[in-house]
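Batch 3, record 17
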Amino acid sequence: MIKKGSPGFWSGFGVALVIGWLAFPRILYRSLEQPVQFSHAIHTGETVGMTCDGCHTFSNDGRFAGIPTLVQCAGCHADVVGETEAEEHFVKEYIKQRREVPWHVYARQPDNAHFSHADHVNVGGIVCERCHGSHGTSGSLRPFEENRISGYSRDIWGANISGVKSNAWEGMKMNDCVACHNENNHRSACLDCHK
Amino acid sequence: MDQATVKQSRYGMAIDLDRCTGCGACLMACAVENNVSPGRPTVNERTGTTWMRVIEVQDGRAFPAAETAFIPMMCQQCEEETPCVSVCPQNAVEVDPETGIVGQIPQRCLGCRYCMTACPYHARYYNWWDPQWPEGMEKALNPDVAPRMRGVVEKCNFCHGRLHDARAKAAAKGSREINPTDYIPACVESCPVQAITFGDLNDEAADVARQAKSERAFRFLSRLGTEPKVYYLSGRSWVQRLADRELARSKKETVHG
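Prediction for the assembled complex:
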């Protein structure tokens, strides 16, 4: 038997840590490239100057559009307007063929979670950046990391495998929702957020 | 902003049994709204899933004088000593203090079915199989309600998905108070004779609160003291006398969808 504190113990401990912290996340998640490289920075930057709600709109009944559909993109991109390869690909493969882009949605929650953007934005007064960080000014779309078992986005658990986080966008588990709700004394019945 | 400013509601129903014709539109509307899958060919009363049943009862007299009543029966949303809540080992059932709705969380449920035993109304159903829809029908599923999986219990929650929608609609206008007309469960909406009234029992002006106080109103098994929030109305004394009887086994249930 290996004694606690002996070199054998520590090397085994080290191996277990490496497997748990480094190897396991690589096995658990697979990396998928987005079908189109989209730059938020170009759209929200000075030349175009769009705002978040220019594309990510609410309808009158409070439903949130999420990622805009092709129709909205086609308003400007009926033909190639920029010079990038990504745009040429987008116009040729999707706009011209009237095919919706099968985006991998970083923030998509499991089926049984109900989240109302209208509640949080209109009533709660939370700004987009509070939960989505600097996504709106990012120059490119990072690879989507999919949990091989559940199919969920890695953004749900968060990049840090230990679950420790300091910003809202670093994890969107139920506990993270509950923590903020408790802090602000908001609704906390199961069915308020589950469907 | 804080919870104290939100109105406390007690959602309830009043079902007029003298109006109900037993057509079953409420059953279908319920199943469609809540993604209850059609039963497999082998299901029976015990193994099928339906959040609502229509129970047929007769007064026992011979043919020309015989009378029939139909009793739509779903979760009665017990408020006190809620039997299913008190027995659940998983904390998978709770009464929402803000709405009075008894919520069932399938993801927490371990499938022990203790709640089904505890429920005096047989309003809870166990998923013996994963849900299956005929090809093409899965495209018509309601995105506001998550389908349940094999091995968990489910039941009526007053179409809670519609409450989410009503809240979102209110939030679009910057309000936390929903418009009562935006939140109507599917069974209420579908009833061709408007036998079912739904609303906030705390709201004195609401139709449902007025009907619940009517002298025709009664609740099933009220002697148990669970304070159900579904009221039934009938002017027929033999129907009223059924209130204290066990009804669930009296006639076959519609479980084949």
